[in-house]
Amino acid sequence: DVQLQASGGGLMQAGRFVRLSCRTSGFNFDEYAIGWFRQVPGKEREGVSCSSSSNMGRCTVSSDKAKRTTYLQINNLKPEDTAVYYCAAAKLTTEPVAHFEYWGKGTQVTVSS
């Protein structure tokens, strides 16, 4: 079975960092890209981009192939980073748009000011 397990969330203080992990199994890790998303109650789920203006210089995404795990680290946390964070897998293709077909359960990150 395909599984993605996000973990590492919790109650965080503003200004600190969080490192989320997405552990995967059940598919060829080399053939898929792992993306991160977040959702705030009442709002649509959105992709987490480390190159966006709100995240520039604050977040990094890395992977450990041997552990089949992808990480999202967000530094200098802000209260607006509070959300449920999800990871998802999209098969690598030549298509310009990724189709995330596998999703894990989210992990809650709550940032207090």
Describe the structure in brief.
This protein is mainly beta and 113 residues long. Helix content is 0%, strand content 51%. It has strands at 3-7, 10-13, 18-25, 32-39, 46-47, 59-64, 69-74, 83-91, 100-103, 107-112.
Structure characterization notes:
- By secondary structure, the chain is an all-beta fold.
- Helix content is 0%, strand content 51%.
- It contains no helices and 10 strands.
- The chain has strands at 3-7, 10-13, 18-25, 32-39, 46-47, 59-64, 69-74, 83-91, 100-103, 107-112.
- It is globular.
Keywords:
113 residues; mainly beta; 6-stranded mixed beta sheet; 4-stranded antiparallel beta sheet; globular
Question: How are the elements arranged and paired?
Answer:
Elements: E1 3-7, E2 10-13, E3 18-25, E4 32-39, E5 46-47, E6 59-64, E7 69-74, E8 83-91, E9 100-103, E10 107-112
Parallel strand pairs: 2-10
Antiparallel strand pairs: 1-3, 3-7, 4-5, 4-8, 6-7, 8-9, 8-10
The rounded Rg comes to: 14 Å
Order of helices and strands: EEEEEEEEEE
Shape: globular
Largest sheet: 6 strands, mixed
Terminal CA distance reads 40 Å
Helix content: under 10%
- Integer average pLDDT: 94
Strand content: over 45%
